[in-house]
Amino acid sequence: MKATLDVLMSRLRMKQLQLLIALDDHKSLHQAASAMAMTQSAASKSLQELESMLDAPLFARSKTGMRPNPFGHCVIRYARLMATDLTALCQDMAEIRSGQGGHLAIGSIMGAVPEVLVPALEAMQTAQPNLSIEIVEDTSLRMLALLDDGRLDLAIGRALVSDQPARYQYEALGDEPVSVVVGHAHAAPRAREMTFADLAGYRWIVYPGQMPMHALLQRELDMAGLGMPPNAITTSSTFVTAAMLQRSAKLVSLLPTSVAALFARQRMLRILPVRMQSRQQTFGIVTRRGGTLSAAAGELIRLLRAGAAAG
């Protein structure tokens, strides 16, 4: 029997999806059944019913335990998503009843935080002072995983870093220019113009290989006829980068220009006059395609659009 929406809506039980999650966590039918307070035979029967309903085996069974096959990974991902959404539903209703006004979880790349996300959040706090807001600053790839799991309502980043970008709704907001930065008291000369070759004697703080700014630095150095620095310090943390730059006269790094300008205004960092040859990176609003947005998420998107149009 082929699984259809009508079949799933009429026969699928949340208990079956919870069992799948437990099996994925424990890799054992006995342990999963124990975690679910079920007998092993009842758990086995429930799994068989689900596999029959979906017309596909979901696990490979062996002496070492049960491992999800490609069908299983697919169903488990959606099971976790549904469980997360139901948990969020209960939390939102509890917060609304208590007068807290609901919950909004947002992810953002660091370059969008100062001039894009913060002004929109200020407006949100004014309009909805009882709204609980959670902010995650991370790479686009990690935020997409959180979006898939239902842990974020929306993200400000890039969908193209995914191997399946069509799974997401993407709306461009703007560009993310990048600057070369050093500590405010750095020994680099205060020239009107500099090149990457002028920085050859300094030690670099770089981003991990999977991050777009690592590839950007690699391209810029390649165009300057230079290789990647052999003794680089690697971190994805904006705070670590800024703190190390501020205390050292021999370190240099890249930061999104909006973030660099924020630290420069506080006389913590200095932006060097190094012109980038690479094309500016773009970012935008990313949501799950086909997902339903909360009223708070919809309002934040409206404010982000308005800010992009005004800027």
UniProtKB/TrEMBL annotation:
Keyword Transcription appears in the UniProt entry: yes
Which Pfam families would you find in this protein's record?
A: HTH_1 (PF00126), LysR_substrate (PF03466)
Domain HTH lysR-type: from-to ranges:
12-69
| Matches recorded under Gene3D superfamilies | 3.40.190.290, Winged helix-like DNA-binding domain superfamily/Winged helix DNA-binding domain (1.10.10.10)
Annotated keywords: DNA-binding, Transcription, Transcription regulation
Q: Which PROSITE patterns match?
A: HTH_LYSR
- What family classification does the UniProt entry report for this protein? Belongs to the LysR transcriptional regulatory family.
Write down what this protein is called: LysR family transcriptional regulator
Q: What taxonomic classification does the UniProt entry list for its organism?
A: Bacteria, Pseudomonadati, Pseudomonadota, Betaproteobacteria, Burkholderiales
